[in-house]
Amino acid sequence: MSILFEPVTVGNLELKNRFLRSATYYALSDMDGFIGRDSVDLIRRLAENEVGLIVTGYAYVLKSGQSYPDMNGIQDDDHIPAYQEMTRAVHDVDGRIVMQIAHCGSASETAAKTGGDYMAVSLVDKMPDYGRRPRVMTDADIEKIIAAFGQAAGRVQEAGFDGVQIHGAHGYLVSQFLSPLSNQRQDKWGGSLENRMRFLIEVFRSIKNQVGDNFPIMIKLGCKDYLKSGDGFSIEEGAQVATTLEHEGACLIEISHCNQDASSRKKNLLGITSEENEACFLPEARIVRQATSLPLSIVGGLRSPGVMEDIISSGVSDMISICRPLIREPDLIKRWNKGDRRPADCISCGKCFNLDDKGKMHIQCSQLKED
Ligand SMILES: Cc1cc2nc3c(=O)[nH]c(=O)nc-3n(C[C@H](O)[C@H](O)[C@H](O)COP(=O)(O)O)c2cc1C
Ligand code: SF4
């Protein structure tokens, strides 16, 4: 049997194989973040198709942290019943699921465009342009967001999820605090690495306080800024954050990027059609591996079973995260388990975000199927 289909233990979770469906926004929620039957069906399908651990699309913990208008929300208790349906659907087929929770900070496009409370860690030259400048977060704002992460995680637990994942990557609020490019604060939240990671660590503690010691808390960590200039949050700093998270009691770190500019995105994540281009964050994962003994899951351009097996066998990562290949082929893991080892069909063109003529987003593969 391939090592990819050997079970693995993450915290107190026994997972049937090494595959993690990396968090994927699907544009299926309403304006207040409520999920419907289509979201439950989509997730059930992944569980039926043998994904070892499913991570939901990111869900905002406060309205001020909403980027897309149709992303998931977990900002109040009214959301719990619908998510209970989702977790039941997964558990009925013996799957495992965690929810990713987030605040998007200065990338909270919907908050900005609908007159919401639009905030940033600092005002810097490179800010998203949503027609409005954010205001700088006060101490009280930061404390409120930290508390909201904890309360959201309490709801995640009540809804029957098997764990919670903090979105600590991709330029959203945790990344905005970690990177010295977006965090130019002079108070206890900015400056030294200890100060820049304070927000993440306080979020972690707030969650732990709500859910207790036995509920798995994971993080998708942006371990490094990928910018043409080479500036920003370094992998050495990312590794130190990983060590600190281990001491705090995290149970899995998913390795991804912090801020990334368009040319780095192209280099890292687009046009992956040969094995040499796969696993774009492998060098960084090796450095994080030295810094922590926590289970790791590497994301970013993993497409071929052979490449994945080498990574797991070498001990660099315990799990393999994939996102776009499962948009194109939701039954990919089952296909590999049945012995069809052809690489994922996804060509990493990056065209899964499709707007219709009414301006509504649809997440779907825009490449034609051959069969
Ligand atoms: C349609 C789409 C939605 C995504 N939504 C999220 C999300 O909600 N949270 C997150 O952490 N990453 C999200 N990502 C990033 C993926 O989880 C993943 O990190 C990235 O696509 C690289 O992995 P891949 O090469 O296997 O696609 C999304 C990516 C895509 C294409
Ligand atoms: S559009 Fe299809 S082929 Fe292109 S990245 Fe998305 S899933 Fe892959």
The best one-word shape is globular
Major β-sheet strand ordering = 3-4-7-10-11-12-13-14
Q: Class in CATH?
A: Alpha Beta
In N-to-C order, the SSE pattern is EEEHEEEHEHEEHEHHHEHEHHEHEHHEE
- Tell me the quaternary state: single chain
**How many domain modules?**
1
Q: Outline the low-pLDDT stretches.
A: none
Assign a percent range to the helix content. Answer: 25-40%
* CATH homolog superfamily: Aldolase class I
Please state roughly what percent of the residues sit in beta strands, choosing from under 5%, 5-15%, 15-25%, 25-35%, 35-45% or over 45%.
15-25%
Number of strands: 16
Rg on CA atoms, Å: 19 Å
End-to-end span in angstroms?
28 Å
Number of helices: 13
Q: What kind of sheet is the major sheet?
A: 8 strands, parallel, barrel
What small-molecule ligands were found?
flavin mononucleotide, iron/sulfur cluster
Second CATH tier, the architecture? Alpha-Beta Barrel
- CATH topology: the name is TIM Barrel
Mean pLDDT across the residues is 96
Structural class given helices, strands, pairing? alpha/beta
Structure report:
The protein has 371 residues and is α/β, with parallel strands linked by helices. It has helices at 37-48, 80-92, 109-113, 139-158, 173-178, 193-196, 198-211, 235-248, 262-269, 282-291, 305-313, 324-328, 332-337, and strands at residues 8-10, 13-15, 19-21, 53-55, 59-60, 72-73, 97-102, 119-120, 135-136, 163-168, 217-222, 252-256, 296-298, 319-322, 353-355, 361-363. The chain has one domain: Aldolase class I (TIM Barrel). It is built from 13 helices and 16 strands. An 8-stranded parallel beta barrel has the order 3-4-7-10-11-12-13-14, surrounded by 5 helices. Strands 1-2 form a two-stranded antiparallel sheet. Helix 4 runs parallel beside helix 7. The relative contact order is 0.13. Bound molecules: flavin mononucleotide and iron/sulfur cluster.
